[in-house]
Amino acid sequence: MTSRARQIEFFASLDAEEEIERPRHYPRPVRFLLEEKLRRALGLLGRVTSTDALCLCGGSGMDAEWLARLGIQPTILDLSPDALSRARERARRHGFKVRLVRGDAACLPFGDRSIDMALVHDGLHHLDAPYSALDEMARVARHELVVMEPARAVLTRLAVALGLATDIEPAGNVVRRLDASSARARIRVHGWRHVYWARDLVYYQPWTFTLYRLANRKPAFAAFTLLYRLLNLTIGRLGNSLKVAARR
Ligand SMILES: C[S@@+](CC[C@H](N)C(=O)[O-])C[C@H]1O[C@@H](n2cnc3c(N)ncnc32)[C@H](O)[C@@H]1O
After folding, report:
1. What is the pLDDT of residues 68-122, one digit of tens each?
2. Is 127 near ligand 1, meaning CB less than 6 Å away?
3. Of the candidates 61, 80, 79, which has an alpha carbon nearest to the alpha carbon of residue 69?
4. For the domain that residue 227 is a member of, what is the CATH number?
């Protein structure tokens, strides 16, 4: 079975309701961590100018919903027909417009500079050649690129060694984490002049949800966010979560 076929099979097996609604039912700290990823990645750009965006590996539409809430018209591209139909249902339920395209991130069915922004969240690490998908993002985007992916980093290696993370993702493929300077260099090759990156610590796995729920209420949640920001100020740059943002 090819890695793509494994992706399609795995993403067909997920619980539709959970996927359509995520992250609404997640513990508050996990929702915070997810939104913090987007805030930090877009923050690298300063002011976002895009009015439409392609969400590569957009799955069941969580990223698209984020963008729609910011007033950016999303298009989702994904390999999985099941994910796309869940995204359609999410958009219907939660009242936003989305365009759905079935396709492969490694070979985008869009023209050069045909959409303002190309954005990916937790998608490229599923691909056999994630940097080729970066090439594609750099080709189709007119103004802005946003990448939020697992990082090749010291703390990631440590997490794998401690059994807190794995090098094989749930579909059975190798996790291809991105290296910050390689990603930056790859985007610059395409003539993007301003490429910024940041790494921080973001950890949530299904087994952590019980723990995170303990911080759902206000005082504990405030303590969690404070601790999180302190951790990131100190060791965040060694962290497992890479954000890259670029402007032409
Ligand atoms: C972990 S999910 C992330 C979905 C979404 N970005 C989110 O964060 O909610 C990864 C998605 O990537 C899609 N995917 C994997 N390989 C792909 C490829 N080569 N081209 C397009 N989509 C792909 C999967 O079908 C899945 O929907």
Report:
1. 999 999 999 999 999 999 999 999 999 999 999 999 999 999 999 999 999 999 9
2. yes
3. 61
4. 3.40.50.150
Q: From the DSSP assignment, how many helices (H) and strands (E) are in the chain?
A: 10, 7
Q: Is 143 in the pocket of ligand 1 (CB under 6 A)?
A: no
174 to each of 127, 167, 203, 211, 238, how far by Cα in Å?
9, 6, 19, 28, 22
Domain that holds residue 125: 3-247
Number of domains in the chain: 1
Stated pTM of the model? 0.96
**Whose alpha carbon is nearest atom 13 of ligand 1?**
57
d(Cα 103, Cα 219) in Å, to the nearest integer?
45
Residue 93 contacts residue 53 (beta carbons within 8 Å): no
